[in-house]
Structures are given as structure tokens and as C-alpha cells.
Amino acid sequence: MSMTKHEAMAEALHSQGYSCSQAVLAAFSDVSGLDQALLLRLSAGLGGGVADLHEICGALTSAVLALDLIYAEGAPKKELRARNDYPRLREVAQAFRDINGSIVCRELRGFDGCVGVCPKGKTCHDMVCDAARLVDEFMETHPINDRISG
After folding, report:
1. pLDDT tens per residue across span 22-44
2. In the prediction, which pLDDT does 150 show?
3. CA–CA separation, 10 vs 141, rounded Å?
């Protein structure tokens, strides 16, 4: 299976030494309308499950941010966010969990006494690719011009 456009971009950024979160978010600069350097700065502290605390995977966190930049309306009312934004984010998070066994960094990597749940041989680099590919797949099935308005 060939890589998606943003998956390849995220992989290249991660290979250059950017964190998992930076690689994923910055790969979507073209569709977010934001400068790649700004996205690298915004996501700098999210790597390693936020500041290397091994909480929610940084690659997935940045996939959520990318989806928000592309689709979210920034609605102030909880019911609008619950109807429009949260289902989309849950769909991608669940797909990430289905592929990797968890969305928690320490569980994925086997840190802090956790047994690694990631499929054998998978690395953070692979999760960067998974996260970017899931956003690309979501965009493919949910065109940006078809987003739901509140």
C-alpha cells in the first residue's frame, strides 16, 4: 500500500528529528492554511504523550488538532461541538486504537510498568504514519466543503 500525501510528509518530518506531534501537525500545513513553522512550534510540547509524560499519543493528539484546523467551527456551545466535532475526533481516535491497541503513549511503548500493546515491531515512526494516514482517509471520505455547519 502506498503512502498518502500527508503520511509521506509526516514521515519525512519525523525522519528529520521532529517529534511525533510536530511531524503530524506540520504535515497538514497545506490544508490548514497555517505556516508549517507555526505548526511545528504549536505542537512542540505534545511529543511523547505531552511533554514526554507518556499520556495520549502525540501523533494522535496532532491528528486531532489537524482535524480541528480543517473542520472545526470553534462553536462556543457544547451541543454544537458534541454534534459536529466530537464524533469526527472519536472516529479517528478509535481507528488509531484499533490499529495500535491503545491511544496512550505509555501503553503503546511499554513505559511506566505498562506492557506494550502495540503490534510487535511497531515504532513511534509507524504511529506518526498511522495518524497522518487516518486524517487523509477522513478527508477523503468527508470533503472539506461538505462539513456540517452549526
Report:
1. 999 999 999 999 999 999 999 99
2. 37
3. 20
- 104 strand-pairing partners: 56
**For residues 26 and 61, is the Cβ–Cβ distance under 8 A?**
no
Helix/strand/coil (H, E, C) string of 40-84? Answer: HHHCHHHCCCCCCCCCECHHHHHHHHHHHHHHCCCCCCHHHHHHH
Percent of the chain with pLDDT over 70: 92
**What amino acid occupies position 105?**
C
**54-57 LR contacts (CB < 8 Å, sep 24+):** 54/104, 54/105, 54/106, 54/109, 54/111, 54/112, 55/104, 55/105, 55/106, 56/103, 56/104, 56/105, 57/20, 57/96, 57/100, 57/102, 57/103, 57/104, 57/105, 57/108, 57/127, 57/131
Which one-letter amino acid corresponds to residue 64?
V
- Give the tens place of pLDDT for each residue, 110-124: 876 766 777 777 889
Q: How confident is the model at residue 149 (pLDDT cuts 50, 70, 90)?
A: very low
